[in-house]
């Protein structure tokens, strides 16, 4: 389904987990800032609407979308966050630079999702025209920032639940008699 057949701001509140205790990082590119500010507004307001306290939302700015990867990496390395949203707007110009920026940021964010434990949400418009970006940052097609905020809440919840289930599994094993040795602990077998 293409964006033109879906309003990016619409979501079913009944499918959104409780987000009150989650902490979110938002990294915003300054290129095309009228668009990225619109995307940020959509994401920020949606997090507030889902009862995330403003004090649990950390915002950093970076120069352009290519720097979103480094900004997200340092955000999740240094801040206590349950998910990171990266916000950018890349618009086709006269050269192939568009292709390289889009590929770089896409692959970089994918790599962070593979290599780290904190979900990084891809709120980067890759449009042919400014009008397409306007339409997707609060215009006729809604706001991709809203979509990204809901995705961030859902992924933070999956991260939390998967960690809990892992802990429960461990507890189950320990309570069932399995032992968990600290690395280097000598195993003493009693007669
Ligand atoms: N043309 C756009 C850029 N270009 C800048 C790069 O993202 C990067 O900041 C620069 O190459 C220095 O590393 N960035 C956007 O976010 N949007 C564009 O349309
Ligand atoms: C995505 C870009 O870097 C692009 O907008 C820059 O424009 P140009 O390709 O005309 O240099």
Automatic annotation (TrEMBL):
GO terms for molecular function: 6,7-dimethyl-8-ribityllumazine synthase activity. Pathway: Cofactor biosynthesis; riboflavin biosynthesis; riboflavin from 2-hydroxy-3-oxobutyl phosphate and 5-amino-6-(D-ribitylamino)uracil: step 1/2. SUPFAM superfamilies: Lumazine synthase (SSF52121). It holds the Pfam family DMRL_synthase. Its EC number is 2.5.1.78. InterPro entries: LS, LS/RS, LS/RS_sf. 5-amino-6-(D-ribitylamino)uracil binds at residues 31, 65-67, 89-91, 122. Keywords: Riboflavin biosynthesis, Transferase. It catalyses: (2S)-2-hydroxy-3-oxobutyl phosphate + 5-amino-6-(D-ribitylamino)uracil = 6,7-dimethyl-8-(1-D-ribityl)lumazine + phosphate + 2 H2O + H(+). Transmembrane segments: none annotated. The active site is at 97 (proton donor). The keyword Transferase applies. (2S)-2-hydroxy-3-oxobutyl phosphate binds at residues 94-95, 136. One of its GO terms (biological process) is riboflavin biosynthetic process. One of its GO terms (cellular component) is riboflavin synthase complex. Catalyzes the formation of 6,7-dimethyl-8-ribityllumazine by condensation of 5-amino-6-(D-ribitylamino)uracil with 3,4-dihydroxy-2-butanone 4-phosphate. This is the penultimate step in the biosynthesis of riboflavin. Belongs to the DMRL synthase family. HAMAP family: Lumazine_synth. This is 6,7-dimethyl-8-ribityllumazine synthase. It comes from Flavobacterium psychrolimnae. The lineage of its organism: Bacteria, Pseudomonadati, Bacteroidota, Flavobacteriia, Flavobacteriales. The gene is ribH.
């Amino acid at each position: 389904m293409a964006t033109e057949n879906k309003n990016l701001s619409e979501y079913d509140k009944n499918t959104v987990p409780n987000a009150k205790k989650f902490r979110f990082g938002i990294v915003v590119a300054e290129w095309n800032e009228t668009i990225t500010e619109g995307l940020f507004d959509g994401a920020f307001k949606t997090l507030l609407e889902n009862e995330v306290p403003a004090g649990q939302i950390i915002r950093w700015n970076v120069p352009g979308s290519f720097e979103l990867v480094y900004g997200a990496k340092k955000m999740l390395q240094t801040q206590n966050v349950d998910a990171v949203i990266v916000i950018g707007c890349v618009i086709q110009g006269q050269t192939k630079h568009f292709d390289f920026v889009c590929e770089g940021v896409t692959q970089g964010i994918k790599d962070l999702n593979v290599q780290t434990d904190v979900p990084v949400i891809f709120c980067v418009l890759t449009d042919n025209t400014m009008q397409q970006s306007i339409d997707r940052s609060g215009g006729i097609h809604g706001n991709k920032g809203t979509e990204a905020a809901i995705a961030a809440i859902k992924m933070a919840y999956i991260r939390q639940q998967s960690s809990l289930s892992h802990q429960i599994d461990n507890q189950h094993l320990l309570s069932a008699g399995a032992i968990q040795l600290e690395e280097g602990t000598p195993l003493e077998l009693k007669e």
